[in-house]
């Protein structure tokens, strides 16, 4: 038997009766995927949390300047199980990220490891920062 603390237990008893058992099931429908994004050197790195998702169910697509990540995590099907709690999200997950003009869409690399999808997007050479030399001396403007 699974025991947990539930602050809404008394409210549920009032709503569903004292002897009622209710399975709490969370279905994401099309939930957003948690992500982090940062620039490191000459690339833009985006990581997405996708625990329990198989690499085959992940779809990464770029159309114009929109990067779309879609993944699916199926619900566990077991007709003999008597569920007590079912809170892990299942279904289709989607996240869209708008890419700036300074990013190379053709050079995107994707890696999935330990439930984390990592995308590395190179920064185009023209957009990378450059050091500009400053010279001392008389101004170049003549009157």
Automatic annotation (TrEMBL):
Q: Which residues form the SHSP domain?
A: 26-137
Which superkingdom? Answer: Bacteria
Q: Which Pfam families match?
A: HSP20 (PF00011)
| Similarity annotation | Belongs to the small heat shock protein (HSP20) family.
From the Swiss-Prot or TrEMBL record, give the protein name.
Answer: HSP20 family protein
């Amino acid at each position: 038997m699974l025991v947990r603390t539930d602050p809404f237990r008394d409210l549920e008893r009032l709503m569903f009766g004292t002897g009622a058992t209710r399975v709490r099931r969370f279905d994401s429908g099309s939930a957003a995927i948690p992500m982090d994004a940062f620039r490191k050197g000459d690339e833009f790195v985006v990581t997405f949390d996708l625990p329990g998702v198989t690499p085959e169910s992940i779809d990464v697509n770029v159309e114009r300047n929109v990067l779309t990540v879609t993944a699916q995590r199926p619900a566990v099907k077991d007709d003999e199980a008597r569920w007590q709690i079912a809170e892990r999200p299942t279904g289709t997950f989607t996240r869209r990220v708008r890419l700036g003009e300074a990013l190379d869409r053709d050079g995107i690399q994707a890696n999935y490891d330990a439930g984390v999808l990592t995308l590395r997007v190179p920064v185009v050479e023209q957009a990378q920062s450059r050091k500009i030399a400053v010279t001392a001396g008389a101004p170049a403007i003549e009157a």
